[in-house]
């Protein structure tokens, strides 16, 4: 799971591996807090934020001097706020939605620091189609009060993922591996949120927490891995 480079110091590689292991353990325990698993919600209050903090610590050691770094870190901190809000699924849903919407906007700004917005239009067409399919599937179950926030959220999410694909398609050849990981992260975020929204608005998804949270933290790790490793 850790993205390392031969040029990275041994200490940095060990630190990244330790953070990856801590993320896997924290994510597993957070997922096991779901009702279909151990049914111990208290685990989520500790290990869900802790898992995201592991990703933040990983990202904080990367990308020194890069213009995108501050925006990636902002997106991760906003994601942490969203994670905490969603620990209360009903009362926290709208604050969580707003937090993650702002996180996607922060990521979008980060990605436009290296490539012009929508510089590769096929990515935006593809994700617009995906967004339309997701909304069509969910729309009958979305309450009227949430329709505008949900549309805004899906648009920001799809734009973030599409711009991640732009960075991969138009990026520097030397950074192709990291930009490819970024594009995967954007796609995983879309998948995670699509499952979450389906579970909330269209009907229960079996073992929803497993699919939502595993793809979510994988997406965040991929986005953090886009930042250049310390050398």
How is this structure best described in words?
By secondary structure, this protein is mainly alpha-helical. Helices cover 73% and strands 0% of the residues. The longest helix is centred in the last third of the chain and has 27 residues.
Essential attributes:
single chain; 231 residues
> What is the tally of beta strands?
0
| Cα-atom radius of gyration | 17 Å
Low-pLDDT stretches are 1-6
Q: Summarize model confidence as the mean pLDDT.
A: 92
- Number of folding domains? 1
Estimated helix fraction: over 70%
Total helical segments:
8
Task: Note the main sheet.
Answer: none
What is the straight-line distance between the termini?
19 Å
Structural category is: mainly alpha
| Percent of residues in beta strands | under 5%
Shape: globular
Order of helices and strands: HHHHHHHH
Quaternary organisation = single chain
Secondary structure layout:
Elements: H1 10-31, H2 42-60, H3 69-85, H4 93-112, H5 121-138, H6 144-170, H7 176-202, H8 208-225
